[in-house]
Amino acid sequence: MQKNKKELRLHYKNLRAALSLDDLEEKSLAIANNLIKLPIWDKTYYHVFLPIEEQKEVNTEYILHLLSGKDKEIVVSKSDFDTRGMTHFLLTDNTKIKKNEYNIPEPVNGLPVPSATIDVVFVPLLAFDLSGNRVGYGKGFYDKFLAECKPETIKIGLSFFEAETEIEDVFESDVKLDYCVTPEKVYSF
């Protein structure tokens, strides 16, 4: 059954809201464990989103531990709501993180990293389909950012839930995922 982005957004926001904090932690850990199976660990720069707790996003702390254990360069972003653009910074021990007005944890300062340098991006989403299309919050931040990355950048969606068959209102400008990882399995597109 096809669904449009608006319906999917609402449906998955409700599903996420119903998750207990224990569910959220357990599923986030399972996602991190499934990531280990992907052929992505020979890269250098990994972009990770810091979760909006109020939205019950995937807790990426487990992924951060994985990356720092493998000695990778970790990149986090700051969003500009006027331009719908994102600026990226190297996450170091000195990086100060502060929530913005939308409760998004962001670096206050740091060493800038150009989008074209990033090798792997872990992408937040609400839903995805079997073709690698994703539904986010609809603001276009990630589509814009992923379009600035080099073509070979690996895009990995993280989802608590399994794939929809098809998202009906996909746009030309929507950037597809290469993988999507759920607590149950790894989808490859």
TrEMBL record:
<dbReference type="InterPro" id="IPR024185">
    <property type="entry name" value="FTHF_cligase-like_sf"/>
</dbReference>
<protein>
    <recommendedName>
        <fullName>5-formyltetrahydrofolate cyclo-ligase</fullName>
        <ecNumber>6.3.3.2</ecNumber>
    </recommendedName>
</protein>
<dbReference type="InterPro" id="IPR002698">
    <property type="entry name" value="FTHF_cligase"/>
</dbReference>
<dbReference type="Pfam" id="PF01812">
    <property type="entry name" value="5-FTHF_cyc-lig"/>
</dbReference>
<dbReference type="InterPro" id="IPR037171">
    <property type="entry name" value="NagB/RpiA_transferase-like"/>
</dbReference>
<keyword id="KW-0460">Magnesium</keyword>
<comment type="similarity">
    <text>Belongs to the 5-formyltetrahydrofolate cyclo-ligase family.</text>
</comment>
<keyword id="KW-0547">Nucleotide-binding</keyword>
<keyword id="KW-0067">ATP-binding</keyword>
<keyword id="KW-0479">Metal-binding</keyword>
<keyword id="KW-0436">Ligase</keyword>
<dbReference type="GO" id="GO:0030272">
    <property type="term" value="F:5-formyltetrahydrofolate cyclo-ligase activity"/>
</dbReference>
